[in-house]
Structures are given as structure tokens and as C-alpha cells.
Write a structure and sequence with these properties.
heterodimer; A: about 240 residues; alpha/beta; Rossmann fold; 6-stranded mixed sheet; 4-stranded antiparallel sheet; B: about 475 residues; mainly alpha; 2 domains; 18 helices; about 0% strand; globular
Chain lengths: ~240, ~475
């Protein structure tokens, strides 16, 4: 399988506090990786470094062999990012928002509409797609942000808690879309606090605590001792908290 | 409860004012007042005429700013976290009043100080000092009173959904004041002289017994009544007022097809924003009216002010946090900057042409050098301010590090107030030098600024 994302030895210091310590991560074609961790584990900092919003104090990130600090534009073409708080732009309707975002990646209007229309219907946004996106509910904004990022067809989708604010139907739709998207040879990295989603959706689970990766494996590998995923999580993150 | 809330309010205000984000509007206000007040020193022979004009214009501006601040503060205290908290209504009003008091004190201080200094130089040092003190308190009560009274009046008269427009309505006060001044000056010139005499005579008598001082105390009382009466009348309604926090715009728009190319996309987005948000158009119209009505000596400042305002829009595409969306796309910072500048060029050009046209009409003709300099000023402002904002990403975040904030406040004071003012003065007195400097700013930034933006790490990693 082709490696789509490679992060090596990432560290991040904030005024003497080390939020992320030596995190290394790879994502391969077809993978959906769930990033689990308690609050303050360093998940969001890791995601911000992976998306070029935050400079790692040490370490490197590359997408499809394009280094994010040197081959910036090529690397940025390879990924899309859905933040935990939907990033809306004033004045634009939902459809215009999707077109604006995907257009910045060089997609034509026809391409964007062709890719976005099925997702708009799947997420039941058709009725409000010509209304201002800033007037949407949180969940609707989140779905819109997701469609906009998928419309430019990134090889890797990085999503920070994408299911927050989604109703059960939309959350299920999102999982189906993620599975289908990964099946086309793309990869998805998502952070979540929902164990059910991690278990049912992810092909691999990475756990973080205290800025470290404390576990990395498939659900079967992580639970082979007979413990549930929740128990493994509590044990590993608890241990990390004790040692830090 | 009032003491508890005001202690927190003080902390928020302190942090807000020490941040660049909070400082910029404040500095813009002060810069505008300084521009007006400098006219007192610019032509000593028209001192009395200028004094009346400056007091009226500066007061109209200060009142509209104070009213806006008070209306917004009232809205904040009745929405969101504060809106749902079990806080009695009286402390909410106290919080809004306190925030308004800070603004009005600052406005009154700047205006009265300018007046005092003007009179110290033209009339009498001690007299100027006396006018400074008296006019400070008069302005404080008058501006505050009008702000409170007008907002209360709006609360009674306008339906809830239009109350947000209260702040915008007061901006019109500025245009009304200017028209009123010009009409009175034309038809009743002695009224203008008598108004100025109140200040000049008070200053001329120094610290002696002053009949004129009655005017100042009268103004204070008038302000108090203006504020208290509508407030008492609307008090019950204000106390019960709640503001919906969600954006309830349910209008359906014709979604437009996006063009291809980054510059075209930004241009496309700007056109949509301009046609759907009428604030900018209204600001442009008011600006043109101001240029038409205000004495010619000030026109240059409006050109540079237009540029500064347009430059400030460089990253205004949504909430500051939404900028992450732009910074994760495959674009270098220089591309973001130049594309956004191109998107802002049409409105800047329209404003420049309209201002120039109004300026020529009003002055009855201006020199070619002055016209070229006036045309270049908005673009120099656009390039300079937008580049500064691109260069310092922390403009969009608040920082708790006091030392850093003070350094930045000083830098931004110089960049957003003194440099534009200096360039404006230069264009007025030595237009060709102004032209050379403006061209230097524009092309210097185009050639070297783009390289700086791409190599500076703090620009590339906006959300450090």
C-alpha cells in the first residue's frame, strides 16, 4: 500500500510546555485512522502541525512524498482539513462556500458541482444550499465544511472531531461517506471521543496521552488481551498521566 | 452583583484595549479626532470659524461612536453567556454604562484637550486650561447623555429586530451635523461666531469669574436630562430586552458559479460580499458626502483614510478563525496578499474616483500634483496597511503578554495613525514628494514585500 502521510518525530513546545513529544505517524491508502485521547492529550496540536497551521518545533511532515515545509504547495494539494469548529466565510451561500473552497484548489465549477451534489443530497442540505452558510446550525456547517473539503478530492482528509453536532442520521451518513472515500485509495485521519465510531469506522486506532502516542494498532490488536477498547484507553491514558 | 460584574468588566476591557484588535478602532477614532483638531492650528486667521466646525464635527463623531459602543454593550449583556445567566437586569445596564463611560471619557478627553491646546496657543494659557477642564465635563455628560437617551428612544420606538440598526442610524448623525453646520453658517453666520465666542471668551478671562461657564454647566445638565428622561421612560423595556444570538437570515440567494483561478475567486467572493452587504456601500456614500461637505483642507486625509480602511479588509473574509481555511489551501502568503489586493482594488478605485470628483467639485479645481497624490494615497494606504496586517498574524489573536502588546500598540499607532497622517500632510504641502513616497510604498512592497511574506515563518504559520 502506498504511503500518503508521513509524520516523523514531531515535537511542539509552547513557552516551556511540550504539548507533543516525538509523535510519528503514517497513513496508507484506504486507511481510516481514529485518533483517540483525553482532553489535552495533544491531538489538536498534532492535527494543526499535520495541516501546516502550526510549525513543529522539531520533526517533519510529508504528504505523498511532498515535504510540508519545503514543497508547500504540492503537499497542501494532497490534503483537506475539517476543523472542530466549522470555518465559515461571510456573505456566501452554502453552495458558494463549497465552490469557493474547492476553487482554491484549482477545481473547475463543473468538477465541484459533480462531486458536491451527491454529498449535498446525502447530507440533506439541498433545501438550504442557497441560503447563507453563516445562518446554518452547527451540524449543518460541519457537513458543509466536510463537503467542501471532499469536493477538491484530497488524498488525505484530516478531520478534527467531525461528528460533533451531527444528528444520528448525519453521523451515519458521514461514516458511510468516509468508508466510500477511503475505498477509492484515499486515507482519513479523524480525532474523536466516540469509541463506538472509532470501533465501527476506523481501520486503525491511535491513542495519545500526555503528548505521546501510547498505542497504535487495529481494534483486534488493541483488544487482544480481552479488554474492551474503553478499558484499554483508560489503562493506557491513565498510565501516561501517572508517568507524566 | 454590580460590583462583581464590573470587576470582570474591567478585566475584559483592560485585556481588550491592550490587544491590537481592540486598539485599532480606538486608534482610528483618535486619529480622526486629531485630523479635525489640527485644523485649529492650521489656519489661525479662521480660528473662530474652524473652532465651531471642529466642535460640531468632532462632537457628532464622538456621539455616534459612543452610541454605537453603548448599543453594542447593551446587546452583549443581554445575549449569549450573559443573556442566559441569572443576572438581574440592573447590573446588565450598569455593565453597558461602564463600557460606554470608558469610550465617552476617552472621546471627551481627546476633544477637550485639543480645544484647550488650541485656545492656549491662540488666546490665553490659563484660559485654555479652563476650557479644557470645563469642556471635558460638558462633553462627558453631553455625549454620554445623548448615547443613553438615543438608545433608550430607539428601544421604545423601533421593533426588536431593527434595534441592531441603532448604531448605524447614529452614523447618519454625522452627515446631519455637517449639513446643519453648513446651512447655519450660510444663513446665520452670527450663530457660528457666538458659538465660538463661548469658548474664546471663557479662555480670554482665564480663571476670573465666568458668565460663559454657565454654558458648560448648562451643557452638562442638558446631557443629563437627554439621557435620563428617555432612559426612565424606556427603563422597563430595556431591562426586559433580550437579543437573539443566532443569525436568522433565511433569505434564499441565487448561488453564483465560481470562476477558475485564485485571483478570480477572491474577486468573485468580494463582489458577492459587496452586493449582499450594504454597509460598505453606505460607508462609501457617507465618505463622498463628507468629502463634499467638509472644508477642502481635509480632503487629503479622507483619501488616505479610504486606503487604510480598505487595507484593513485584507483578511476580512469571515471570522478570524476561518482564516485557517485559506492558510491550509495550496497558496503562498504572497499569493493570498496580492489576490486579495486585486479583489479590493475595484472598490478602492471607485472610492478614489468619487472622492476626487467630490474634492474637485468642492474646491473648484485642484493642482495636477495634488490630484495625482490624492489618487495614489488610497493605494499606498491599501498596500501599506494590508501588508502590515499580513506580516503580523497576531493582529487576529489577543495576547496576554503585556510587554508584547504594548510594543505592538506603539507600532500600530505609528503605522496606522502617524504614517498616514504624515503622508496626508505631505500631500497637502509637498504633493510631488507625496507622489514619490506613495509610489515607493506601492512598488517597494510589490517587489520586496512579496518575498518577505513568503520567507517569514510567522506569516506562513498564522496560527502559531
Amino acid at each position: 500500500m502506498r504511503e500518503l502521510l508521513r509524520a516523523r518525530g514531531m515535537y511542539r513546545n509552547f513557552d516551556g510546555f511540550t504539548a507533543v513529544q516525538g509523535v510519528s505517524l503514517e497513513l496508507y491508502e484506504g486507511e481510516i485512522v481514529a485518533l483517540l485521547g483525553p482532553n489535552g492529550a495533544g491531538k489538536s496540536t498534532t492535527m494543526r502541525m499535520l495541516t501546516g497551521l502550526l510549525e513543529p518545533t522539531q520533526g517533519e511532515v510529508s504528504y505523498c512524498n511532498y515535504d510540508l515545509s519545503h514543497d508547500v504547495l504540492e503537499a497542501k494539494h494532497q490534503f483537506g482539513f475539517v476543523a472542530d469548529e466549522p470555518m465559515m466565510l461571510s456573505a456566501l451561500t452554502g453552495l458558494e462556500y463549497i465552490q469557493f473552497v474547492a476553487g482554491l484548489y484549482g477545481c473547475s465549477s463543473e468538477e465541484i458541482l459533480e462531486r458536491a451534489n451527491p454529498l449535498i443530497d446525502r447530507f440533506a442540505l439541498r433545501a438550504s444550499i442557497h441560503k447563507r452558510a453563516t445562518s446554518y446550525s452547527h451540524g449543518m456547517k460541519q457537513k458543509l465544511a466536510l463537503i467542501a473539503q471532499l469536493a477538491h478530492q484530497p488524498k488525505v482528509l484530516v478531520a478534527d472531531e467531525p461528528s460533533v453536532g451531527l444528528d444520528p442520521g448525519s453521523a451515519a451518513a458521514m461514516q458511510d461517506i468516509f468508508r466510500a472515500y477511503a475505498s477509492f485509495g484515499n486515507a482519513i485521519l479523524l480525532s474523536t471521543h466516540l469509541f463506538d465510531m472509532a470501533q465501527s469506522l476506523a481501520t486503525r486506532i491511535v491513542m495519545m496521552a500526555g503528548g505521546h502516542i501510547v498505542a497504535d494498532g487495529t481494534l483486534t490488536e488493541l483488544t487482544k488481551s480481552g479488554e474492551s477498547l474503553h478499558q484499554v484507553f483508560m489503562r493506557l491514558t491513565g498510565e501516561a498521566a501517572m508517568t507524566s | 452583583m454590580i460590583g462583581y460584574l464590573l470587576r470582570w468588566q474591567l478585566l475584559f476591557l483592560k485585556r481588550d484595549l491592550l490587544s491590537i484588535k481592540g486598539m485599532i478602532p480606538l486608534l482610528a477614532n483618535i486619529a480622526f479626532q486629531v485630523i479635525l483638531l489640527t485644523s485649529l492650528f492650521a489656519s489661525p486667521q479662521d480660528f473662530a470659524d474652524n473652532l465651531t466646525m471642529v466642535v460640531i464635527y468632532a462632537s457628532a463623531f464622538a456621539i455616534s461612536q459612543t452610541t454605537t459602543m453603548y448599543a453594542q454593550a447593551l446587546e452583549v449583556t443581554s445575549s449569549g453567556l450573559l443573556g442566559i445567566a441569572p443576572i438581574p437586569a440592573r447590573p446588565r445596564v450598569a455593565m453597558a454604562m461602564f463600557e460606554m463611560l470608558v469610550t465617552v471619557t476617552l472621546q471627551a478627553f481627546v476633544i477637550s484637550l485639543g480645544l484647550g491646546i488650541g485656545l492656549m496657543g491662540q488666546v490665553n494659557v490659563l484660559g485654555g486650561l479652563l476650557v479644557w477642564i470645563l469642556s471635558f465635563f460638558a462633553a462627558l455628560f453631553l455625549y454620554g447623555g445623548v448615547a443613553v437617551g438615543f438608545t433608550a428612544f430607539i428601544t421604545i420606538v423601533l421593533p426588536a429586530k431593527y434595534r441592531k440598526s441603532a448604531a448605524a442610524l447614529t452614523s447618519m448623525l454625522y452627515v446631519v451635523a455637517m449639513i446643519l453646520y453648513l446651512v447655519v453658517k450660510h444663513r446665520f453666520p452670527d450663530v457660528i461666531t457666538r458659538f465660538a465666542d463661548v469658548f474664546i471668551n471663557t479662555a480670554a478671562h482665564g480663571f476670573g469669574p465666568e458668565g460663559q461657564s454657565v454654558w458648560f454647566f448648562g451643557s452638562m445638565l442638558f446631557g443629563l436630562v437627554l439621557g435620563m428622561v428617555p432612559m426612565a421612560w424606556a427603563y422597563g423595556k430595556i431591562l426586559l430586552q433580550t437579543t437573539p444570538s443566532a443569525n436568522t437570515d433565511s433569505k434564499t440567494y441565487n448561488s453564483r458559479i465560481v470562476p477558475r483561478g485564485i485571483t478570480q475567486i477572491f474577486f468573485w467572493r468580494e463582489r458577492i460580499a459587496f452586493t449582499r452587504n450594504h454597509t460598505l456601500a453606505a460607508v462609501l456614500v457617507i465618505g463622498i458626502v463628507v468629502v463634499m461637505l467638509i472644508p477642502s483642507g481635509f480632503n487629503t486625509f479622507f483619501f488616505i483614510y479610504l486606503g487604510v480602511q480598505m487595507g484593513a479588509f485584507i483578511l476580512s473574509i469571515g471570522h478570524p478563525k476561518s482564516l485557517a481555511l485559506i492558510y491550509t489551501t495550496p497558496m503562498m502568503p504572497s499569493k493570498i496578499w496580492t489576490s486579495r489586493i486585486i479583489a479590493l482594488l475595484p472598490i478602492t478605485s471607485i472610492g478614489t474616483v468619487a472622492f476626487l470628483f467630490a474634492s474637485i467639485l468642492h474646491a473648484g479645481g485642484i493642482s495636477i500634483a495634488m490630484a495625482i497624490c490624492d489618487i495614489l494615497l488610497p493605494f499606498a494606504g491599501l498596500f501599506g496597511v494590508s501588508f502590515t496586517l499580513m506580516l503580523d498574524p497576531s493582529m487576529f489573536t489577543t495576547t496576554s503578554r503585556k510587554k508584547q502588546s504594548i510594543a505592538k500598540v506603539l507600532t500600530s499607532t505609528i503605522l496606522f495613525s502617524f504614517v498616514p497622517l504624515g503622508l496626508g500632510f505631505l500631500c497637502d504641502s509637498q504633493p510631488w514628494i507625496g507622489v514619490v513616497i506613495s509610489v515607493g510604498i506601492i512598488f517597494g512592497l510589490l517587489f520586496y514585500g512579496t518575498r518577505v511574506l513568503n520567507t517569514k515563518k510567522s506569516v506562513r504559520y498564522l496560527f502559531q
